Amino acid sequence: MRVDLTSFKLFVAIGEELNITRAAERENIVLSAASKRIADLEAGAGVALLHRHARGVSLTPAGRTFLHYSRQVLQTLARMEGELSDFTAGVKGHVRMHAIASAISEFLPHELNGFLERYPLVKIDLEEHVGPAIVRAVAERTADIGIITENTPAEGLERLPYHVDRLVLVVPDGHALADRPSIRLTEALDHDFVGPHPDSSLLAVIMRACMETGSSIKLRIQVRSFDGMCRMIEANLGIGILPVLAIEHQLASGRIRAVPLDEPWAARRLFLCMREFAALPVSARQLVQHLTAAVEAPV
């Protein structure tokens, strides 16, 4: 069955107008030529696509199927033309990204700066959210790209490896654990903890680790931001578990110390998630490719 773009456009017009005469006028085709095109389509398909009536037409089941795919073909071609024109004029667009706090603190500032230097016509809306909210936003198309941890369920989404987020035990300078070369979680659980907010993926990791060892954690206070957690730890309100790269500035002050955690879960893998990479706008695909190019080697 051979079909050209004119026939696709004509059939979509017929499906919307339910009248061959009006569809032919809309597509600037003489009525006889339009009728011949439809006859050729039906001959090629070997099945009727239209029911003819005195005042118009209706679609047969085969016609509804042909209309569906005709629209898909035209939409794909329009998207292709738009994206090719983006490459001609320079990639441009609007990318909506949701990410967990550690990705925003540790990796994205430098990487987005490099991306926007290369593609200055792209606008990025970046929002911080917890993992389940990110997955929901991507699934519901309110975000194009998400960054989540490996333990965040993301059924139905495409995932690509991103960085490894390394967690450490953070204690006040002078604390009894401050000079340890490394530590197991169970060795620290006798102390009070400053924890992240209840919905955070970081707290979920900590609570899961405690549950697996049959231990409990004494959360003395919970704080939403990493900086806030560090300030509470400085004030001797407890110790905490935080991504080491996210608190480099606070560690440089010397008022808190980072003790490596001797735990497999302390190296959290992060993932980029999206509904389907191939279906993303060109600007979002370029951003995903830029971010994945910076992925760390596996640990």
From TrEMBL:
Classification via PROSITE patterns: HTH_LYSR (PS50931)
Entry keyword set: DNA-binding, Transcription, Transcription regulation
InterPro entries the UniProt entry points to: HTH-type_LysR_regulators, LysR_HTH_N, LysR_subst-bd, WH-like_DNA-bd_sf, WH_DNA-bd_sf
Domain called HTH lysR-type: residue spans: 3-60
Coiled-coil ranges per UniProt: none
Family: Belongs to the LysR transcriptional regulatory family.
Name under which the protein is recorded: LysR family transcriptional regulator
